[in-house]
Amino acid sequence: MYPHQAERLSEALERAGLDALVATSPENIAYITGFRSLTGAVFPTLQFAIFTRQGAALVVPAIEAPAIIADAVDVDHVVCFGGSWAPWPEPATPLARRLHAIVATAAANPVEALARALERLDIRRGSAGLDESRLTPEAWRRLTDQLSRIEVMAGAGHLAAARRVKGPYEIECLGQALHLAEEALDVVIQTVDHGMTEREAAAVFTAEVVKRGGRPYPPVVAMGQRSGIPAPWPTDGALRAGDLVRFDVGCVYKGYCASVGRTAVLGEPAARQETAYRAVQAGLEAAAAAATPGAPAGRVFDAAVEAIRANGLPYYEREHIGHGIGLEPCEPPLLASGTGARLELGEVFRIETPYYEFGSMGVSVKDTVLVTSAGARVLNRSHHRLVDLD
């Protein structure tokens, strides 16, 4: 665990008066331990990461133990549940002996394993914040019954608050993810031409992300009238002269998320297209200028909407103009009207100002910004002008 994460989690314990934080979501587990379960993504099952003043622990199915040992996951205790994963080699290596010791004492189920892990961390009484985000009501009841000597309360909000401010490693990973997505999108922009379909352009983006070591999100490549649909799947619709192309793409790199929004046009843009794009670009710039430490999130929203309305889209309406980004593509706080949460130094936001006219056109632009003492620093390397595809 990096010092920044340990500090933020310790502060969360102090603020809430807790003895432990117990994560259930993949993102919260990764924040505490750095571990990301591959099998859990395919066969969802209860897994936990625990943070206390005494240390940290992982609670996982036995099948996860080999990866944890082989990858030297930095955690004080590993408690497994379920059956053994494979025969043991002879003679046993030190790593194999450690693996055997972990799996041989596996608990019968995840609830029992969590109780054991808390005991190893000397949490037998006191209070714990339990991440409710991946728990059914039945799972919550079973867990709280098993931990009857511990006062259990909802913990997802405390973990989300800890994750808001990013440390140096996180900022570096977010920047790398963003640059990877931008590089992949640049290849698409250099490739797309008259007659190319949305599906073909989306496939180029996906391949370029994978080639660079990232995991792509389903890309939005919306051409012509379909650019006015906020979230369309790519089709075999082909690009024609005068069409706008709205790109809304992203990826994950080292567990951290990136999102890029850009708009292009094949040929000379129509006056309405150009006006709409200038307006949303003005809104993006106004939002970034307002994203200063201590500013209410709602003020950033208001600055964007006012600029867009003043620059050619007087009836512009939008529920939000962005949010935090990190281990998840959408994190608190939301940049929305009336939101009182104040921006903090070290937060990273995705700011977006899309505009859609269904059946006609759509334009969008996004930037990712880091809140610094001098204001918002844009992490993107690509420009956000209306891209000319000619």
Question: Can you characterise this structure?
Answer:
With 390 residues, this protein is of the alpha+beta class. The protein folds into 2 domains: 3-164, Creatine Amidinohydrolase, Chain A, domain 1, CATH 3.40.350; 168-388, Creatinase/methionine aminopeptidase superfamily (Creatine Amidinohydrolase, Alpha-Beta Complex), CATH 3.90.230.10. Helices cover 37% and strands 23% of the residues. The protein has helices spanning 3-16, 26-33, 39-42, 65-70, 94-104, 110-120, 137-146, 156-164, 168-191, 198-211, 271-290, 297-310, and strands at 20-23, 48-52, 55-61, 77-81, 127-130, 151-154, 215-216, 220-223, 244-253, 256-265, 320-324, 331-336, 348-352, 355-357, 361-363, 366-372, 375-378, 387-388. Strands 4-3-2-1-5-6 form a 6-stranded mixed β-sheet, with helices on both faces. Strands 7, 8, 9, 10 and 18 form a 5-stranded mixed β-sheet that branches.
Give a short synopsis of this structure.
The chain is an alpha+beta fold and 390 residues long.
Key descriptive features of the protein:
Creatine Amidinohydrolase; 390 residues; single chain; 5-stranded mixed sheet; 18 strands; Creatine Amidinohydrolase, Chain A, domain 1
